[in-house]
Amino acid sequence: MSAVVVFVGDGLSAGARWEERFPELEVRNLGVSGDTTDEVLGRLDQVVDVDPDAVVLQVGTNDVGWNRSDEYIVRNIETILCTVRKRLPGSRLLIQSVPPREKEFVHVIRSVNRHLRQFAPTVKARYLDLWPVLAAEDGTLSVEWSADRLHLIEAGYVVWLNELRPALVDLLERPPESMSVSRHPA
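-> structure tokens emitted (186 positions)
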């Protein structure tokens, strides 16, 4: 599988070492630590300039930390997806759920993810729900995967990769389409 894949998002993506985790792909990691959806919107030219086969988006947790509303976060992510779809009509798109974090943010993150799951097909993007494998029973980021309920430790990245790899392989084997990716029952 020889394809150019751009990973764009915040510090979770920036720290993932996608180049090492997907050696069979030509990976461009455009994740930036601390980025919000506003910053990702501001750097979409970088994504477009690569002209990738696929764009993998993971963003939103920093917006949550800044107490931005679910509507604000969803609107920005929808704008990111619409812009990428318009400017890169032949690229495949994969939007990943906003990962869980501290208890006070559970409600807003679940709301954002519900909206993203519903919106993704409208721009022929796939949606990958990481919540089932990353969240503890109370909806926080599991201490198995994080030391601070925000940043992932290596075990958390491995769990993420185990979900992402089959979704990305499947995405790259097909033309852009509107099917959601879910490995877990709703």
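The mean pLDDT is 91.
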